[in-house]
Amino acid sequence: MTEYVTRAGIETDPQLAAFIETEVLGPLGRDVDAFWQGFAALLGEFAPRNAALLAKRDDLQAQIDAWHVARKGQPIDQGEYQAFLREIGYLVTEPGDFAIGTQNVDPEIATMAGPQLVVPILNARFLLNAANARWGSLYDAFYGTDALDAPPARPGGYDEERGAAVIAAGRKFLDEALPLVGQSWADIADEHDGKLQDESQYVGKTAKGLLFRQNGLHIEVQFDRESPIGKTDRAGISDIVLEAALTTIADCEDSVAAVDAEDKLLAYSNWLGVIRGDLSESFEKGGRTLTRTLAGDKDYTTSDGSAHSLPGRSLMFVRNVGHLMTNPAMRWDGREIPEGILDAVVTSAIGAHDVAGLGKFGNSRRGSIYIVKPKMHGPEECGFTNDLFDAVEDLLGLPRHTIKVGVMDEERRTSANLAACIHAVKDRIVFINTGFLDRTGDEIHTSMRAGPMLRKGAMKTSTWLTAYEKRNVGIGLKHGLSGKAQIGKGMWAAPDLMGQMMVEKIGHLRAGANTAWVPSPTAATLHAIHYHREDVFAIQKGLGDIPPLDQLLSIPLADGVNWSAEEIREELDNNCQGLLGYVVRWIDQGVGCSKVPDINDVGLMEDRATLRISSQHIANWLLHGVISKEQVMESLRRMAAKVDQQNAGDPFYEPLLANEGGAAFSAAKLLIFLGMEQPSGYTEPLLHAWRRRKKAGG
């Protein structure tokens, strides 16, 4: 039972209260009592509004369910369907012409194009790695991954043959990005040799070499003839360092298992450590204790002798949770408060340290706080977030629109009303993006009763998904996001398949995205190559196609498809394996994001969104008789055995197959069998309940 202290009528975990008062408000010089009084007033206004929005979601879903049930077996007429959606308020009238008015946006978001990392905020080591991924060694990225088309490194120390292939690939990159007059980078003898075809690419000299810029991103060519690499190199080049992860999202949401005050306090403490600049983490590696801290800035001197510096770290966003969940960390009026409101207040208060210049390094050079807001359904919910951020700014004494917002376009009602959603936050929006997993999960749940859905693989080429991806970019460009905000694309999930990523992920740039998610700092370094090859802002000028709403609202039903028994079993096993492999780590170990082997033993970076799509897909097939409950249980048991085998080397792993009554297997089973009744198909309510039970020893 949680013991609370009371502040202005808010019951709060005592350690969290002490953290807020001492670590957050103290350095800001804020009046503690006034803060709590203001927080209570904010809850009085926004907690009921939050509840009303969630009730509206349920009401709309009930009406959509009834509409499909009443028309069972009939083809869907788009005219009739859209008229119905407008009548119930699911579709709204589009706003007239407008352009976003966001101001004081850092160049990493507004005018630069480059990779973006998403990192679980509960893991300080990962958080530091991501924040420091602003600069990455291209040599290391090539040497350690299959992005290099050469035999893998032989074990037992440095492989000179592999190293030579890395150096050759590095020279090839330099010839593409920084071409010289009349010669190759492979021909130069030292740092003074060679002349750029475009001399404006030269930026200056660093302590380790020469600094250049291409398509807005920097390249540092390091020279050191005393280093193991440089002494074997004709020109003495020891490394090529790329500006890589321009931005990083510290995630409080889908990639973490944060279910109580203890978890929230760790999240907020890590966020404060990043903003303050003093976050550190010690760990054992190779028999030694290493300590990781935030990187300093990169200093350089221009040709005229003047000194300058570039940020040494990613520009940091923090992703708050959505509107759905509450958290026992605080209670108000006898109930747990909405976790999204708690996040908005506390992460913004921590961000205010940066605005006040209290950090060692600084995050935003424009005085802004960057918050990504996920899982909003439609413009009314975006408007709620805008009003909430207004109130938080007033509570903290921040100028209007200091808090910027990134809108995750991952719910069907948001996609269908994207222009109105952008308009609702038009003076603070800095980001829109797309994501396959959550968006498909909501696609299935919204139209659950319309009929059985396509297989997940077929979804990727379906009409609605193609329209969704194109509409997101087209609508964003139409309303002035280019040069002011990020238009992003989703995650490359396979961190071990960098060669494939280098072939495929450049497509995100060609589609008009000026950022895209990658699963690791190494992937960010490699993905940066794409931004040297393509000028995204030039590409955006040639785009503007917005597919019609008919295409977006085309429901991905498997009309006329007659799957074989083997195809059905294959799809079911794929869903059950992915679900179990992730749930067992989430529930038993509190790991919200990790490289989870898929059914083919390929490691994929999974977060909670994979559960939503998998559980909703199985629930849909169950509802429409494609599969039976018995088949689901047989698949769960088959895949439990496989997941047990895949985790056999983990000393902390608790087997699934021998523990069907345990928390992890029980949660996985209920995510499927209770999937239809979960709000919007979300997995959080069940996951949180079972994780708390596990933490309590149940």
UniProtKB/TrEMBL annotation:
Cysteine sulfenic acid (-SOH) found at: 593
Cofactor(s) demanded: Mg(2+)
Pathway(s) where this gene product acts: Carbohydrate metabolism; glyoxylate cycle; (S)-malate from isocitrate: step 2/2
Entry binding sites for Mg(2+): 410, 438
Domain Malate synthase C-terminal: 567-648
Start and end residues of each Malate synthase G alpha-beta insertion domain: 158-190
Superkingdom, natural source: Bacteria
Chain ranges of the Malate synthase N-terminal domain: 33-71
Name of the top EC class for this enzyme: transferase
SUPFAM superfamilies: Malate synthase G
Domain Malate synthase TIM barrel: 316-543
Binding site for glyoxylate: 319, 410, 435-438
GO cellular component: cytosol
Function comment: Involved in the glycolate utilization. Catalyzes the condensation and subsequent hydrolysis of acetyl-coenzyme A (acetyl-CoA) and glyoxylate to form malate and CoA.
HAMAP family cross-referenced by the UniProt entry: Malate_synth_G
Protein name, UniProt field: Malate synthase G
Organism: Qipengyuania soli
Lineage: Bacteria, Pseudomonadati, Pseudomonadota, Alphaproteobacteria, Sphingomonadales
Record gene name: glcB
